[in-house]
Amino acid sequence: MFRRKLASTLFTLGLFSGTALAADKVTFQLDWLPGGDKAPIYVCIHQGFCRDAGLDVTIASGRGSTEAISKLAAGSSDIGVSDIGALMAARANEGVKVVGVLSVFNKGPHAFYVIKGGSIATVADVKGKTIATSPFTSSNVYLPLVLKDQSIDPSAIKLIKADPGALGPMLMTGNADGIIAWMTDFTRYSNQARQAGKEIVALPWSAAGLELYSASLIASEDFLAKRPDVAKRFIDAYKKSVQFTRANPDAAVTSVTSVVPELGSEDVKGSINDTLPLIFNEVTDQDGLGVFEPKRLTETWRRVAAAQAIDPAKLDPETVINRSFIPTE
């Protein structure tokens, strides 16, 4: 009798253990190519934060915020990263069932890059100059607002759209007085300039008055409703990964290159160092990591609506956010 009871108990424990060890699958949606600016998700996987949360995470590639939002809305991915402005526009125009759950960049990454000692020293100096940009960057959407803030008519600059790989050479050779690029690429462009015997200066648009939230963790409403515990565990693990990246940037580099070996460690390290100030800054000190502060959120929508000619009344920005999953610590 004792042996039968013992066998039964061990069998039950075995089932329980097997259930406990079965990790919940989550599909994470990137909004662009892998890189140091996406370090937290690779840290989450490689450093074991996702595993310790009982999660088996698969990363889906992306080609822009719009595509990322579409995949989440369609249910092919569960949670991912995207520009919150793109999500606001998508909800206003299409009513997509996707919401922001954690702020990542509480400052926009958009900037002018110029050569030190050249004809452009401030954002106001771009008037009358030749500026090169990629055709696909979201920065182009906000450019008219930045120019308006400086009382510059868009026709007062010559805007050239070029392949992203050509922007650096155009700036170094003088074929453009400035280029539009993200602050996450500052090290890469600085290295190009150094090789040409020059020095790059970045003029962030956030310092020129374009204050808004940018890259954010966003999730399918269906995922949040049907698997709230999984969502909570993932968001908590992701936030821990963001904090780990700041405290251990070299280990974060290893995590990225371990998961994506084709990336060079120096490029990844530079991108991580360039990205961290968009996450940790005076806004973070005041409001906290991952927080969507209501006034800043409202200002973000005001800017997005103006940039994309959307009636601001079409959307209450608070409906774009679900704060109930943001970890408190």
UniProtKB/TrEMBL annotation:
Keywords tagged on the record: Signal
UniProt protein name: SsuA/THI5-like domain-containing protein
UniProt xrefs under InterPro entries: NMT1/THI5, SsuA/THI5
SsuA/THI5-like domain boundaries: 39-252
Keyword Signal: yes
Pfam family, one: NMT1
Secretion signal span: 1-22
Source species of the chain: Agrobacterium vitis
Single biological process term from Gene Ontology: thiamine biosynthetic process
